[in-house]
Amino acid sequence: GDSVTQMEGPVTLSEEAFLTINCTYTATGYPSLFWYVQYPGEGLQLLLKATKADDKGSNKGFEATYRKETTSFHLEKGSVQVSDSAVYFCALKGESGGSNYKLTFGKGTLLTVNP
Amino acid sequence: DAGVIQSPRHEVTEMGQEVTLRCKPISGHDYLFWYRQTMMRGLELLIYFNNNVPIDDSGMPEDRFSAKMPNASFSTLKIQPSEPRDSAVYFCASSLDASMGTQYFGPGTRLLVL
Fold first, then answer.
1. Is the Cβ pair B101, A49 closer than 8 Å?
2. Which of A37, A43, A81, B69 is least buried, going by the fewest C-beta atoms within 10 A?
3. A74 pLDDT higher than 60
4. Distance between CA atoms of B16 and A115, rounded to whole angstroms?
């Protein structure tokens, strides 16, 4: 079945450091890929997504590129802020068709940014 | 827009008691999802509904768990009887077009079963 593997962390960085959180997936066909973020005490919210190979999703300075050849969707940000401290989840949705509307999530990566 | 509303935010109960978690999705969203989050297992989909009809309940752990959606603006997740291993954060999420993968999560209910 579908699965998502992401670096477990925790990741601790200083403000303005470069961030990479690795995510790889296993799925048949052409899934859609997502990064969700969970701030302390809140539910998850969509950060960015990509629906086909070589697409780049971006939002709030974060970027991720859908690499089918390496089955990866790594999250990057050039300069993190304290307010980026949160848990980041990589997720996939299987190919459209039928009734496949489920998201499969990775375990999440805790990011702490220190001033 | 108020977002997805869940109640209660926190619940502490004793083993064997019935627990009912409630969710109000975003108005107009046709899909509703229930998830459970634990440190050990991460985020697991329990069940989801489309137009108030359960579509996939393969994630429901056992018969002690049941979910209903009597109308478009309300859903419940019930655990009866509750056990300590049910302690987790339970999230409800809704979606306008689930085929796009964008889901809107509520703040969650933190359940502790003693």
1. yes
2. A81
3. yes
4. 46
